[in-house]
Amino acid sequence: MQNISSPPDPDTVAPTGRGHVVPHGRVLVVDDDPTVAEVAAGYLERAGYDVEQAEDGPAALERFAALRPDLVVLDLMLPGMDGFEVCRRMRAQGPVPVIMLTARGDEDDRILGLETGADDYVTKPFSPRELVLRVEAVLRRGRRAGSAAPARLGGAGIGLEPLARRATRDGRDLCLTLREFDLLAFFLSHPGQAFTREELMREVWGWDFGDLSTVTVHVRRLRGKVETEPARPGLIQTVWGVGYRMDLPDHDASGY
C-alpha cells in the first residue's frame, strides 16, 4: 500500500480530469506540499470526487468561500496561517466536514484539532486509500443522517430539527459542529441506553476504525454546550467501564 511520503506513481494516481462535476461531491485539499496535495487529489478524483487544491490558508479560505465544498482535507502545518486558524475561519462561514492532516504524532495536537471542529485527522505518512475511506465515511454518514432523520428530537429543554440542522437549548440556538450535532441526535434517539466509545464511533462516525479519543473529545465539547454544569453533567452521563448514556426526564425524546 502506497504511503503519502512516497513519490506518486503516475499510473496509480493519474487524475480523471479536474474541473468536471461528479456525483460524489466536491473536496478541497489544502496542503503546501505539492506531492502530498497531488497524491491526495489524484486518489480522491479516481474515487469519483471533484477536487480543488489550495497551498496556504488565505488561498484555502478564498476557495472555500467560492466553492462551498462538501468536505475539506486540511493540513495542520501551513505557512503563515496554520490549519487550526483556517478551520476556525471556515467554521465561521458555514458548517463543513474537515479532515485534518498532520505530521505530528502528539496527542495534544490531535485533540486540539478535534476541539477546533475537525471531524477526523490523519497522521502523515498515511495511505491515500485510507484517506479516501475516511472521506467516504464522513460524507456517507452526513447524508444518511439527513435522509433518515425524524422531523424533530428533543427533551430536557433541548430541541433538534435534523433536516434543518438546527439545535436549541431553552429556546436559544446552539452552535454545534456537524459531528457534535450528529452525536447529540444519536443520544436523543436512544435515551437511557449506554453505548461504548466503539459503538458511538461506528454509529455516529460510521467508522470501524479510528482513535477513540475522537469520541471522548466530542462528548466533552457537547457537554460544554448542552449541560447546565458541564463539570457535573446531568444529561450525558459517563457509565464507568462502558461508555456514555443520555438521561432524559421519563426518557422523553419526543418533544422539546
What does this entry look like structurally?
The chain has helices at 10-13, 34-46, 57-67, 83-93, 107-116, 128-147, 178-189, 197-205, 213-226, and strands spanning 26-30, 50-54, 71-75, 98-102, 120-123, 153-155, 158-161, 166-169, 172-173, 194-196, 236-239, 243-246. The protein is globular and about 55 Å long. By secondary structure, it is α/β, with parallel strands linked by helices. It starts with 9 loop residues before the first helix and ends in a 10-residue tail after the last strand. A hairpin with a 2-residue loop joins strand 8 and strand 9. It has 9 helices and 12 strands. Residues 148-248 form the OmpR/PhoB-type domain.
Q: What are the salient characteristics of this protein?
A:
DNA-binding, OmpR/PhoB-type_DNA-bd, four-stranded antiparallel β-sheet, 12 strands, 19% strand, alpha/beta, globular, Rossmann fold, Arc Repressor Mutant, subunit A, Response regulator transcription factor, 256 residues, five-stranded parallel β-sheet, 2 domains, transcription regulation
Specify the CATH architecture of the largest domain. Answer: 3-Layer(aba) Sandwich
Mean pLDDT equals 82
Trace the largest sheet across and list its strands: 2-1-3-4-5
- CATH homology superfamily name of the largest domain: Response regulator
CATH class of the largest domain: Alpha Beta
The beta-strand count equals 12
Oligomerization state: single chain
> Uncertain regions: pLDDT < 50 for 5+ in a row?
5-22
In DSSP terms (H or I, runs of 4 or more residues), the helix count works out at: 9
Class by alpha and beta content: alpha/beta
Helix content: 40-55%
**Biggest β-sheet: count, sense, barrel?**
5 strands, parallel
Morphology call: globular
